[in-house]
Structure formats: C-alpha cells, structure tokens
Amino acid sequence: MTDGPVRRTIAEHAAAVLARVAPLPAVPLALPDAAASGLGLVLARDVVAAAAVPPFDHAAMDGYAVRLADLPDDGTPVTLPVTGSVHPGSAAVGMISGPNRPDDPDKTDQKSCPQRSGGRGRRAVRIMTGAPLPAWADAVVPVERTSTGRFVAGGAAVEQEVTLSRPARTHVRTAGEDLRTGDVLARAGDEVTPALVAVAAAAGLSELWVHRRPRVAVLSTGSELVAATATAAPGAVPDSNSLMLAALARAAGADVVRVGAVPDDAAALRTALDGVVSGPVAHSEARNRADSPLTTVDLVVTSGGVSAGASDVVREVLASADPALSDVELAAVAMRPGRPQALARWRGVPWVAVPGNPVSAFVSFALFVRPAIARLAGGAPPAARTARAAVAWGTPPGREAVVPVRVLGSGEVEPAAPLHGAADGAGHHLSALLAADALAIVPADVEKVAAGDEVTVLGLPGRHR
Ligand SMILES: Nc1nc2c(c(=O)[nH]1)N[C@H]1C(S)=C(S)[C@@H](COP(=O)(O)OP(=O)(O)OC[C@H]3O[C@@H](n4cnc5c(N)ncnc54)[C@H](O)[C@@H]3O)O[C@H]1N2
Ligand code: MOO
User: Fold this and answer.
1) Residue nearest to atom 4 of ligand 2 (CA)
2) Which residue, judged by its Cα, is nearest atom 44 of ligand 1?
C-alpha cells in the first residue's frame, strides 16, 4: 500500500472495476411491480408463454356468429333465427369446447360440443367483439352488414331473426394465432419493457424472474462541502457531486442510498462507510439472498479525496491498515479529466472512489461506475459507438481525453460548450455538462481531432442520443 498509484488506461481501469462485481441473484418480480417500477431490469430467465393468445377463438367484430355452411356461396341473403347473445366474459352458453381453452390451444377435436354436428337447425347468435365463438360457429357477420344495422349499446336483444349473407372473411381470431403455450417471449439478458409486461400478462404469466436491482451508496468527501440546500458560508461549496452521482446511478437503473457530504476526517468516513454497508450483513451469504435486507448495498461510490493533498481523506483511509478494508488499488488513469482513481472493498462491498472535481466525477461515473451497475444488474456494459466530429478540437497530449459532446441531428458530435468561454477538449467546467449528450473518448496519441474524423462515443445515463 505504500506503492504509488498504478498507471493505467481507461480500458484497464474499467476492466479492474468490472472484475470486482458479479450479477446479482435472480428474484421474482410480480407483473404489477414490473409495470410500476421494473422497466429496464434484466431478465434472469427466459420468459415462456404459459397460455395461448388469444386464449380461445373469439369474434373480431360485433355481429352475428354463424356457420358458413348455412350461407349460400353465391352471396344470396338468408334469414336466420337469432337464438342468443354472447358477450365478452360471458363463458358463453357453455359452448366453449376443449380446443378453445387456454391450456389446450392446438387441439382441433370439437366433438365435445354436442351442438357442433348441427343437430338443431340453422341459426345466428348475437356476438360482441372479444366474446368466445360458439363451437358450432365458424364466422362472424358484422352487424352493419345485416338487416339489424346496428346494436344499441346497453340494449336488450329484440330481434327474433336476422337477414345476412356469407361474409368475405370469417372475422374470427383463433386460439393461439398470436402466441402458443411454450413460445419464448424474451430471453435471459433482455430488459423488461412495457411490451414484455403486457405480452407476459396476456400469455398467462404473473411474474418475471429478474436480477435484483443494484443498490448503490453515494457519498462525497470534503470539509468544504455543505448540503446544496444550506446557506453557503465563506469558503463553502455546495455538495453537487453526491446529487449528481445519485442521479446518474438512478438513471443507470440502481436504487440509491445517498449519504451526502462527509468531512475530511478518517473516523467520520469510516463511520459513514459502516453505515451504508451495515457491518456483518455485508460479509455474509445473506447479501446474496433475494430477501436480504434493504440496508445493505452492492456498491459504494465516493467522490473526492483521492489525489495527493494533505486533506485527501479517501487516500488516508485506503492507506490505513483498517480491518474493514481489502483489495485496495490506487490508480493513475492516463485520462483527462479523472486521473486519480481508487478501488477497494469495505467489509466486502466493492468501493469505487472517483475524484472530486465535478466533471472528473461525472466522467468517472460514465466510464467506470455505470458499467459496474450494468453488470450487477445482470446486463452488459453499455457499448461505445463511433461518430464523426462536426468540428475540429484540440485535446491534451499523452492522455486519453474524455470530452462531453453534443450529438447533432446529423449524428455528428461537437464538444459541449460551457456557458462562458469556448468549448475545448479537456474542460473542467460543469456548465458544459448541461449540453452534453455523450462523451467522446480520444486516444492519448491524438492531439487534434479534425472535422470529419471518427471518434469513439459513449452515451450517458438518462440521455438517448
Ligand atoms: N499535487 C496534486 N494535486 C492534484 C492532483 C495530483 O495528481 N497531484 N490531481 C488533481 C486532479 S487531476 C484532480 S481530478 C483532483 C482530484 O482531487 P480529489 O479527488 O482529491 O478531490 P478534492 O480535492 O476533494 O476536490 C477537488 C475539487 O472538487 C471540488 N469538489 C469535491 N467534492 C465535491 C462535491 N461533492 N461537490 C462539488 N464539488 C466538489 C472540491 O471543492 C475541489 O475544488 O486533484 C487534483 N490535485
Ligand atoms: O484528472 Mo483531474 O480529474 O484532471 O481533473
């Protein structure tokens, strides 16, 4: 631990962070919870239809259920007695035969309905859209193409007979035409989407198996920091990092425990760390159980105190022989901003320490913390893409530059401009983040990006450009 920081590239440090986390255990997620708060969670198991969609043959139009064999091929109208009504949800005059049942969508034997063979004469039954088709029927004639013309909403059946002719289409949706029992709706590794929640519900499921949502503790260090809501005294700085990192972690899909600012005092930092990892629970098997208490976290992110200053409290704690500490790595990542970084475990819980400069903390989150959250959540780290530079810009030599960029309508990128001064390739200005959609990562040996050059671009949580 007396060694200096290890010099690394962005990719090397990102790999070191990822190596410290593993996907969280699978838990069942009831569909109402999936709809209310589960979007984006990662499936731990394939989702397999438990029932057919539609579950039974039903009418696609309001009209009359008929048997095609009763209607002349040449379109000549016939008059049929109206012998009943079927509405959606009415289990339909006991006429839903075996093959129409959700658990048996493929069976075509319809002998289970005694009237199927047409023992009674020709007839029509009023049927409403969505209602189960009587087993003797094989088509629906829309009401507007019959002598009835229209049904009165809420009105009782009055017509004794109806005149209609053979329809061009059957207007029947058959059981299982959309989905069959056993169809794979989504694979482990896919995300929960609104469509999946709906399709799973329609296909007879009540829950999805997902990886538990990661819980991330965020705390910032610095005796100059005051809560953003407090009146600032001389020399005080609003703690924007803990809010920023909490918001980024939330946008990346984590639940967040935000502790806020801890002064530059080793004992205070130890106490705060113990508070978020909840002591012995974090060590034990319980941490990986689905029902583990909410007081544990899966990842700790701190900002500040990692450079060379006399009051750099994270460095001080990491250099101590505290029994709660393990796996300490101090890194000097050859990047700008965000050079001083550290990794450790506190009572077994992975701890990523990012620098305090707000832009450095922001960039560090996107490069190192977000991929870790994605892995805990059971997913893959967000992939970088390439984009063309819309303008030329300079970057510092000898280090990878991480440049907040705006993504233009054309798909090209340009450095996000701070409110004052010009956009450049190595800014520390928080105001430039307001316009940033993504980060461009420029290799260490590039000093000037020319308009039209391809650059590597990484999206930001909460931004979709
Ligand atoms: N002698 C050296 N000095 C510094 C080095 C170095 O290598 N040798 N590295 C520089 C670099 S690069 C960075 S980045 C910073 C990172 O330092 P720390 O992680 O120790 O951050 P602090 O000193 O705690 O704070 C830096 C700066 O950011 C402000 N800050 C911190 N936390 C917050 C917060 N929660 N909300 C808003 N602003 C925050 C803080 O007030 C300072 O102005 O070190 C360089 N120095
Ligand atoms: O690396 Mo520091 O993060 O340049 O600002």
Assistant:
1) 337
2) 307
Convert the pLDDT of each residue in 430-465 to its tens digit. Answer: 999 999 999 999 999 999 999 999 999 999 998 877
Residue 355 in contact with ligand 2 by CB distance below 6 A: yes
Q: Whose CA is nearest to atom 32 of ligand 1?
A: 356
What are the structural domains, with CATH classification, of the chain?
6-24+212-377 (3.40.980.10), 384-459 (2.40.340.10)
Comparing C-alpha atoms, which of 427, 290, 299 is closest to residue 357?
Answer: 427
Helix (H) or strand (E) holding 393, with range, is: strand 393-394
- 150-200: per-residue pLDDT in tens? 999 887 778 999 999 999 999 999 999 999 999 999 999 999 999 999 999
**Cis omega (within 30 of 0) on the bond before 54?**
yes
Ligand 2 atom nearest the C-alpha of 355 is 3
Cα–Cα distance, 300 to 28 (Å, whole number): 25
Backbone angles phi, psi at 99, to 5 degrees: -60, -20
Q: What is residue 67's three-state secondary structure?
A: coil
ipTM: 0.96
